[in-house]
Specification:
By secondary structure, the chain is mainly α. The protein has helices spanning 2-18, 28-35, 40-54, 58-92, 96-127, 131-146, 152-155, 157-172.
Length: 173
Amino acid sequence: MKKAALLTFTLSAISSVASAQLLSYDNEQQLMGAAAFSPTSTYQILQKLIAKCGSYSPALSNAGGETLQQWEQRHHAYLDENTKIRMQLEKMYTHPDAKKAYHDMVEKTMPEAVQKQYEAFASPIDLTPKQPLKEQMCQSYIRAIGEKKFDLKNNDPEVAAYLDKRIHSATAK
Protein backbone atom coordinates (compact mmCIF):
# COMPACT_ATOMS: atom_id res chain seq x y z
CA MET A 1 0.00 0.00 0.00
CA LYS A 2 2.80 2.43 0.86
CA LYS A 3 4.43 1.72 -2.51
CA ALA A 4 1.22 2.51 -4.38
CA ALA A 5 0.74 5.73 -2.43
CA LEU A 6 4.33 6.77 -3.09
CA LEU A 7 3.99 6.04 -6.80
CA THR A 8 0.68 7.92 -7.00
CA PHE A 9 2.08 10.97 -5.22
CA THR A 10 5.25 10.92 -7.28
CA LEU A 11 3.27 10.82 -10.51
CA SER A 12 1.08 13.71 -9.45
CA ALA A 13 3.99 15.81 -8.20
CA ILE A 14 6.17 15.56 -11.30
CA SER A 15 5.02 18.71 -13.03
CA SER A 16 5.14 20.71 -9.82
CA VAL A 17 8.66 19.54 -9.06
CA ALA A 18 9.82 20.33 -12.57
CA SER A 19 8.44 23.82 -12.32
CA ALA A 20 10.01 24.36 -8.91
CA GLN A 21 6.72 25.12 -7.21
CA LEU A 22 6.52 24.66 -3.49
CA LEU A 23 4.50 21.67 -2.44
CA SER A 24 3.24 20.54 0.90
CA TYR A 25 4.32 17.07 1.94
CA ASP A 26 2.34 15.00 4.41
CA ASN A 27 4.88 12.25 5.03
CA GLU A 28 8.34 10.94 4.24
CA GLN A 29 7.10 8.85 1.30
CA GLN A 30 5.86 11.99 -0.41
CA LEU A 31 9.15 13.75 0.27
CA MET A 32 11.04 10.77 -1.13
CA GLY A 33 8.94 10.84 -4.28
CA ALA A 34 9.62 14.53 -4.82
CA ALA A 35 13.29 14.13 -3.91
CA ALA A 36 13.69 11.48 -6.59
CA PHE A 37 13.37 14.14 -9.28
CA SER A 38 14.25 17.44 -7.70
CA PRO A 39 16.67 19.14 -8.45
CA THR A 40 17.49 16.88 -11.41
CA SER A 41 14.45 18.15 -13.29
CA THR A 42 15.44 21.76 -12.64
CA TYR A 43 18.96 21.03 -13.85
CA GLN A 44 17.62 19.60 -17.11
CA ILE A 45 15.44 22.67 -17.63
CA LEU A 46 18.35 25.01 -16.95
CA GLN A 47 20.63 23.07 -19.31
CA LYS A 48 18.12 23.51 -22.13
CA LEU A 49 17.59 27.18 -21.33
CA ILE A 50 21.33 27.92 -21.20
CA ALA A 51 21.88 26.07 -24.48
CA LYS A 52 19.17 28.19 -26.10
CA CYS A 53 20.56 31.43 -24.69
CA GLY A 54 24.10 30.43 -25.62
CA SER A 55 23.06 30.22 -29.26
CA TYR A 56 22.53 34.00 -29.34
CA SER A 57 26.10 35.03 -28.59
CA PRO A 58 29.46 33.68 -27.41
CA ALA A 59 29.27 35.98 -24.37
CA LEU A 60 25.92 34.48 -23.33
CA SER A 61 27.26 31.01 -23.98
CA ASN A 62 30.26 31.64 -21.72
CA ALA A 63 28.31 33.39 -18.98
CA GLY A 64 25.54 30.80 -19.07
CA GLY A 65 27.99 27.92 -19.02
CA GLU A 66 29.85 29.34 -16.02
CA THR A 67 26.64 30.08 -14.13
CA LEU A 68 25.23 26.63 -14.84
CA GLN A 69 28.48 25.05 -13.69
CA GLN A 70 28.24 26.99 -10.41
CA TRP A 71 24.63 25.82 -9.99
CA GLU A 72 25.73 22.24 -10.62
CA GLN A 73 28.51 22.55 -8.04
CA ARG A 74 26.03 23.84 -5.44
CA HIS A 75 23.71 20.92 -6.22
CA HIS A 76 26.25 18.15 -6.81
CA ALA A 77 25.39 16.17 -3.66
CA TYR A 78 21.66 16.62 -4.32
CA LEU A 79 21.98 15.38 -7.90
CA ASP A 80 23.87 12.31 -6.68
CA GLU A 81 21.22 11.67 -4.04
CA ASN A 82 18.47 11.99 -6.69
CA THR A 83 20.08 9.11 -8.56
CA LYS A 84 20.30 7.00 -5.39
CA ILE A 85 16.64 7.62 -4.58
CA ARG A 86 15.51 6.71 -8.10
CA MET A 87 17.50 3.46 -7.89
CA GLN A 88 15.97 2.76 -4.49
CA LEU A 89 12.47 3.38 -5.83
CA GLU A 90 13.10 1.18 -8.84
CA LYS A 91 13.98 -1.70 -6.52
CA MET A 92 10.84 -1.09 -4.44
CA TYR A 93 8.48 -1.51 -7.38
CA THR A 94 8.39 -5.25 -7.95
CA HIS A 95 4.79 -5.67 -9.10
CA PRO A 96 4.69 -5.48 -12.92
CA ASP A 97 2.04 -2.72 -12.98
CA ALA A 98 3.90 -0.59 -10.46
CA LYS A 99 7.19 -1.18 -12.24
CA LYS A 100 5.65 -0.18 -15.58
CA ALA A 101 4.06 2.94 -14.08
CA TYR A 102 7.39 3.94 -12.54
CA HIS A 103 9.29 3.39 -15.79
CA ASP A 104 6.66 5.35 -17.72
CA MET A 105 7.05 8.18 -15.23
CA VAL A 106 10.85 8.19 -15.54
CA GLU A 107 11.00 7.71 -19.31
CA LYS A 108 7.91 9.63 -20.48
CA THR A 109 6.15 11.76 -17.89
CA MET A 110 9.21 13.39 -16.38
CA PRO A 111 10.87 14.28 -19.70
CA GLU A 112 7.55 15.70 -20.93
CA ALA A 113 7.19 17.81 -17.76
CA VAL A 114 10.76 19.07 -18.14
CA GLN A 115 10.14 19.95 -21.79
CA LYS A 116 6.92 21.81 -21.01
CA GLN A 117 8.55 23.81 -18.23
CA TYR A 118 11.51 24.62 -20.50
CA GLU A 119 9.05 25.82 -23.14
CA ALA A 120 7.41 28.07 -20.55
CA PHE A 121 10.78 29.73 -19.92
CA ALA A 122 11.80 29.78 -23.59
CA SER A 123 8.49 31.04 -24.99
CA PRO A 124 8.97 34.70 -24.02
CA ILE A 125 12.40 34.61 -25.65
CA ASP A 126 10.96 33.05 -28.80
CA LEU A 127 8.19 35.63 -28.97
CA THR A 128 10.59 38.54 -28.69
CA PRO A 129 11.21 39.85 -32.21
CA LYS A 130 14.57 41.54 -31.76
CA GLN A 131 17.90 39.89 -31.03
CA PRO A 132 19.05 42.44 -28.40
CA LEU A 133 15.85 41.87 -26.42
CA LYS A 134 16.31 38.09 -26.63
CA GLU A 135 19.82 38.50 -25.28
CA GLN A 136 18.57 40.76 -22.51
CA MET A 137 16.00 38.14 -21.46
CA CYS A 138 18.70 35.49 -21.47
CA GLN A 139 20.95 37.68 -19.35
CA SER A 140 18.09 37.99 -16.90
CA TYR A 141 17.73 34.20 -16.66
CA ILE A 142 21.48 33.75 -16.25
CA ARG A 143 21.53 36.39 -13.52
CA ALA A 144 18.62 34.68 -11.74
CA ILE A 145 20.48 31.37 -11.80
CA GLY A 146 23.57 33.09 -10.41
CA GLU A 147 21.48 34.74 -7.70
CA LYS A 148 20.32 31.25 -6.63
CA LYS A 149 16.69 31.82 -7.58
CA PHE A 150 16.62 28.34 -9.13
CA ASP A 151 18.36 26.68 -6.18
CA LEU A 152 16.53 23.87 -4.43
CA LYS A 153 16.97 25.45 -1.00
CA ASN A 154 14.97 28.45 -2.26
CA ASN A 155 12.39 26.63 -4.41
CA ASP A 156 11.65 23.65 -2.19
CA PRO A 157 13.33 23.92 1.20
CA GLU A 158 11.48 20.86 2.49
CA VAL A 159 12.96 18.61 -0.20
CA ALA A 160 16.37 20.24 0.29
CA ALA A 161 16.20 19.45 4.03
CA TYR A 162 15.13 15.87 3.28
CA LEU A 163 18.05 15.40 0.88
CA ASP A 164 20.45 17.04 3.35
CA LYS A 165 19.29 14.59 6.03
CA ARG A 166 19.84 11.60 3.73
CA ILE A 167 23.25 12.85 2.64
CA HIS A 168 24.31 13.50 6.24
CA SER A 169 23.10 10.05 7.33
CA ALA A 170 25.07 8.38 4.55
CA THR A 171 28.27 10.27 5.39
CA ALA A 172 27.89 9.62 9.14
CA LYS A 173 27.94 5.84 8.61
